[in-house]
Amino acid sequence: MKINKLYLPIVFTGAIALGLVLGSKLGGPSFVSKTDGKSKLNELIDFIDREYVDDVNTDSIVDITVDRILENLDPHSVYINQEDLVSVNENMRGDFVGIGVNFYMYKDSVAVIKPLKDGPSEIAGIKAGDRILYADKYQLFDKNLPNDSLYPHLKGEIGSEVNLTVFRKTEGKKLKIKVKRDVVPIKSVDVAFMVSDDLGYIKINRFAETTYEEFHRALLKLKSNKMNRLIIDLRDNGGGYLEVANAIADDLLKEGELIVKTKNKRGREDVSKATADGDFEEGNVYVLINENSASASEILAGAVQDNDRGTIVGRRSFGKGLVQREMPLGDGSAIRLTVARYYTPSGRSIQKPYEDKGEAYFNEFEKRFESGELYEADSVHIADSLKYKTKKGRIVYGGGGITPDVFVPYEAKHGEEGTYMIMQSGIVSYFVFEQLDQKRNFFNGLSLSELKKEVCDKNNYLMAFQKHIADGGIILNFSDKAKIKKYLYAEFVRQLFDDEHYYEVVLSEDKMVKKVLELN
Fold first, then answer.
1. Transmembrane helix among the record's keywords (predicted)?
2. Is 320 annotated in the active site?
3. Which of 130, 198, 294, 419 is least surrounded by Cβ atoms within 10 Å, i.e. has the fewest?
């Protein structure tokens, strides 16, 4: 099912989630050694540049050549061009310098979903629903501008100022607002709060440079609220830095317990073990995973499982057991090359086969759906030859992801997968923004309880949403109307209040969280 790009919100706090396990970023010599092959490639490019009948951008030929070389290695060895690398590095660094707003390109104008809390735009007075018409004298509307044309006018040097002309629909007037650019954090810990009197919940969306600091602050906050059981939610977390997964595992494991081992082509092994500095070495731990939990997520889940430190809840993870090293190239681009395999404490490699290096490798959802694996634990095919034992002697398996200790089926019932995917997509966010935009002053005056009655006790928003997706060519039969209303209500809460209240709503119906609550 294709989702129209206009539904995808632009979160001006980050960009791309990469399914990678990264070691530290290392420089060094060019990735191509001085061989006959290199000379042949250089001679060909020089020959084309000198003699070809038409003008050719030889840089683009080199890019294509590098891509083709890496495609023949493994799915995670990749070339990242200069433009994409800027966004990737910001995302993995955990911050950027800018004005700090979430926005849509809405009807060919930059519409603010909401300014980031305590960010430069909120401090300057930008509000949700504002249209940014000009950045200094540069027009941002009626131009069909691609996102990369917007960023240079909204980002900049720390302390630099940009004069924004905004139209505030709630007041029906234009305003001039000066915003001083500052460092804007890109959160990797979405939320941390108490689910019950003793059970804490931390949601991690990736493993970036700042993730351990965010996690540790959240952990200490929850401990101060008398937490003695912890849920770490790694669903849809595609990975990131190996060292960060190690640091989080170190907080959970006792001194000397093995976290992960990596091994390169020359047989060199690097072993990571827990230190004596863990801040949550006692108390139950539950790690939530699904088919999109990959790489660093699997390192953390594997360390918890193999050391019998906690319970893995959910569905089989992605199956990515390769480590990349980043090698910057002189033109601002970079290569991330697979340089090692990692092994969980029991000795498992959880890397799935990658004979197919294309789209099918990265998106196994349909295959797992057709096999029944998303709904039945018995449908997970595991090779008996890949048996390993945890610290206490429990049997675990390698060869394709982390298999959970407690299986929880896919959230949607058979036949309702399309509806569930729609409710998890940007379509809901876009629809809710439109509803708020029509009568924002009314919604701003509602309390949480009043908002719930407005959305859940009436049918008009449900009917409007059904029409909204039908107008986009998507026809669905909403059999569980109460659940659809709950998803709509949650998105209203996110845009009007904050992420914590949003997660409190969605987790109240979450099957994996309910399963954890049943375990004790």
1. no
2. yes
3. 198
